[in-house]
């Protein structure tokens, strides 16, 4: 946090606005001072005079001077964020939360499961993994989107998959002309994976219903609740465990998450 | 530190003369007491009445305040009010302030406006020599009188015809007037008697409750998906009175608005976890927009936060037994009955 007052956003210039899909844009933000963050930590993005919302940067934590925030157009604030143009000033607070346990992944099989815009925070994890690939056993990325046009970061899949230790598979919900890849929701590509299961950690991000069915599918495949990390993004607001709105039981997602080990939260109702 | 005895006129003179502070104290009303600006012309504050209807929370955590300004020619936000002296703060409220200090001041991020007001405020507490029917501090591991270390600078006990004043911090000792007489052994014994009487009275009025709750041992309550919560949620009208009146409830909402100088302002207001809009998130028609769409699970979350989650988060219960939520509830929900009914 750069400001003395943790409620004050620091100004950031929009270097570029990238149209990713018909419903998703990425804002490249250049904060006044570089904002160091860990993959999986989130920031509060302020549209001046309108409000702020929590987003996990989708760019590499190794590049804190330019933070990419990938945004689905889905509500009052994100509608306005989609109208932003390069050169405009926005605000950033943070980073908040714990971030992904990247340091604990040495020697591990990393399974990354994304749904829709849920690939955004996972891309920061993918970048962090690619930067230390020599220490990891393997990285498998499983991604599902509604249709071909909604596949996020489609131009980058080949680059991720060109690494020998990286496997990338994607699927779309329903078949479409011109698509010869997998068809079906993301859980359909989680069956019978040839992975070193006991030596794995799984990171999942996507809409609530996707998280739920992905957890069920993973448990069925034999993964344990301790191995599964879920991006439990709720209405995180202050980011500091004070405003109270993002709790699951005794945990505040803004402070203890936003990625939570499933074993910690599985016994609380209303997780999904 | 010594304990002093003062007459009513000396107490009034002392409070009126506290240097460079805005003094707030309970004033008697037709039905009890209400904390407002201290007016020496009205005599001594109502320290012989039960705790005031409202807690002192709002004096250091106002219901709405600007927490940041940004952009434009905006000047930074700073708490500029005169430091406060809060008079007649009860033991239960001091416990609530300890809880709020943990939330607002501990950890990686400190809340600047809270810190500024809290550190400059003088806490002048008082022992309870009367209680409300809903008072239940002894039920949650508390007591109706104040001891050194509870967080008061000076503690007052209303005796027949006068007051005992006990400074409890160095800052409190500096507030004490010169030439005050030390309390006699008889007066101290009288204070002990009053304290014991009040403990017994509060224990007696809560005798029907069998659950046990202390900071170290929370009651065992079911999670919010248990149908039993519906028995109590059926009476909740989602007004938020309990969260507003509670001395430990601190949930807030942040919103921004544009200022005329092309800058913007960030405002926080109190919020209530019982309201259906509380967790409302962005999202389309297919998505679950609130994690707790049912009132039953929101009511459960509030009570579980007080009794189960807070001890895990802060090592303290979130309920201090002031009973205000019971007085304020339009649906006549009594938090003691809820815990008693649902405990396992």
Describe this structure in words.
The complex is a heterodimer of chains A (272) and B (344). Chain A has 272 residues and is an alpha/beta fold. Chain A has 2 domains: 10-96, Translation factors (Elongation Factor Tu (Ef-tu), domain 3), CATH 2.40.30; 102-231, Rossmann fold. Chain A is built from 6 helices and 15 strands. Chain A has a 7-stranded mixed beta sheet with strand order 10-9-8-7-11-12-15, with helices on both faces. In chain A, strands 4-3-6-1-2-5 form a 6-stranded antiparallel beta sheet. In chain A, strand 7 (109-115), helix 2 (119-130) and strand 8 form a beta-alpha-beta unit. Chain A is globular and about 50 Å long. Chain B has 344 residues and is of the alpha/beta class. Chain B has 2 domains: 4-54 and 79-205, no CATH class; 227-342, no CATH class. In chain B, 31% of the residues lie in helices and 18% in strands. In chain B, the strands form 2 sheets. Chain B has an 8-stranded mixed beta sheet with strand order 3-2-5-6-7-8-1-9, with helices on both faces. In chain B, strands 4-11-10 form a 3-stranded antiparallel beta sheet, with no helix packed on it. In chain B, a hairpin with a 2-residue loop joins strand 7 (154-159) and strand 8 (162-167). The longest helix of chain B has 21 residues, at 185-205. Chain B is globular.
**Greatest interface by residues involved:** A-B, 48 and 55 residues
Coarse structural class of chain B: alpha/beta
Q: Give the quaternary arrangement of the chains.
A: heterodimer
The major pleated sheet of chain A works out as: 7 strands, mixed
Which CATH architecture of the largest domain in chain A would you pick?
Answer: 3-Layer(aba) Sandwich
The amount of beta strand of chain A, in percent, is: 25-35%
Rg of chain A to the nearest angstrom?
18 Å
What count of structural domains of chain B? 2
Widest sheet of chain A: strand order?
10-9-8-7-11-12-15
